[in-house]
Amino acid sequence: MTNFPSHKRGWSELKREMNEARSNDLIWNNDRTFKPAYFAGDDVLEVAQESYHMYINENALYSKTSYPSLYQYETELVGIIVDLLNGPDGSGGTFTSGGTESNLMAMKTAREWAKEHHSGSGTPEIVVPRTAHPSFEKGAAVLEMKVVRLQESPNLTVDLAAMEKAITANTIMLVGSAPPYNYGHTDPVTAMGAIAQQHGLWMHVDSCLGGFILPFAREFDSTIPEFDFSVSTVRSISVDLHKYAYSAKGISALMLRDKTHADYNRTSFNDWPGGLYSTPNLSGSRSGGAIASAWAVINYLGWEGYRKIVLDLIQLRKKFLAGINAIAGLRVIGNPQTFQFAFGSEEFDIYAVADAMEDLNWKIGRAREPHSIQLMINSSHHSTADEFLSDLETVSARVAAGNIKARDIKSVYAT
Ligand SMILES: Cc1ncc(COP(=O)(O)O)c(C=O)c1O
């Protein structure tokens, strides 16, 4: 246990100590790192960091009353994201600290909406596909709700018949993901929304990972289904700006087809000495830097910039997928439409391949169902794609020949 420091220390000494301490940390945007990180080049990073730094101490809790510039960025960002996700007139959104909070706020909004529109009297339930993000379980713990997580996921997408069967008198919400975290595909949002409508349920789309990919990717890939407000039954969408929008960390949005539904996620309180306290999310203090960073990067790149990045990554993904599928015994899982995907093997132990690739200093992810290696790609991987695929081929052949055994490493998402 560390005691409270008794003496002052100089910043240069502390800085040196911190630089030493971080020397073993993952270099998130290194071209050998395929773990979740969002990098669109040094110029974009500079914009994200400098704009964050300009507002590093401003508290977005007070944007409306004290920081008109932050309030302007927030207002403009809502319009920008509504436009991106085909929101009709009357749609809007609010900002949160990340995807987990956005999904949690979607659950709260649906829960409060259901009190007025739904007759169930027990614990409110939501039905989610097997592949949905664990943030829904976290939301259920906080909001005293229940998650019914489907067990079946044929071809990784949701089993629609099982989803409908799981609906009870207490179900208030269905969730689709665009994409779910692991495999990069898009859930059949239109079909799920039809089920939601038929049963009078709230339809939420978790597009934390894909909200800034799919609108651009759909221009180049006609197999990507509609997933946003153009599906008339979708009531809310969570979308992270600190992922593929390339903002600095700490900002996501919960977008609503009907912006008046934001009243359901607002907490207002007046009966204390401080006066009216009213926030549209879970957070109190929020980083002004994250808002400034999102506003700056989105305006820096524009539609043109994101479109170019997405096209470039589609081509890079093609190279990875073709290269992986060409290696004996390996196969890409599912139909990745975004930039995180997984591959496994029915012939040999893919975790042994993962161990050996890590020994060659590749930083990769793992998934469990089925056992697989997970890659998230970004533009820095152009320089290492050939070397990665060549190492993968060599290592896979050695594992297949029985020359490498797996260490006892489990798949861990986060602890
Ligand atoms: C699909 C999806 N939803 C929600 C989240 C949670 O986002 P955050 O880690 O920003 O809370 C993630 C994170 O990767 C995600 O991939």
SSE series: HHHHEHEHEHEHEHEEHEEHEEHEEH
Please tell me the overall pLDDT. Answer: 95
CATH architecture title of the largest domain: 3-Layer(aba) Sandwich
The fraction of residues assigned to DSSP E strands is 5-15%
Helix fraction?
25-40%
Largest sheet features = 7 strands, mixed
What is the terminal-to-terminal distance? 20 Å
Gross geometry: globular
Quick one: how many beta strands? 13
Explain the layout of strands and helices.
Blueprint: H1 11-21, H2 42-54, H3 63-66, H4 68-84, E1 92-96, H5 99-117, E2 125-128, H6 135-143, E3 146-149, H7 160-165, E4 171-177, H8 189-198, E5 202-206, H9 214-217, E6 236-240, E7 252-256, H10 262-265, E8 267-269, E9 277-279, H11 288-325, E10 330-332, E11 340-345, H12 350-359, E12 365-367, E13 372-376, H13 385-400
Parallel strand pairs: 2-3, 2-4, 4-5, 5-6
Antiparallel strand pairs: 1-7, 6-7, 8-9, 10-11, 11-13, 12-13
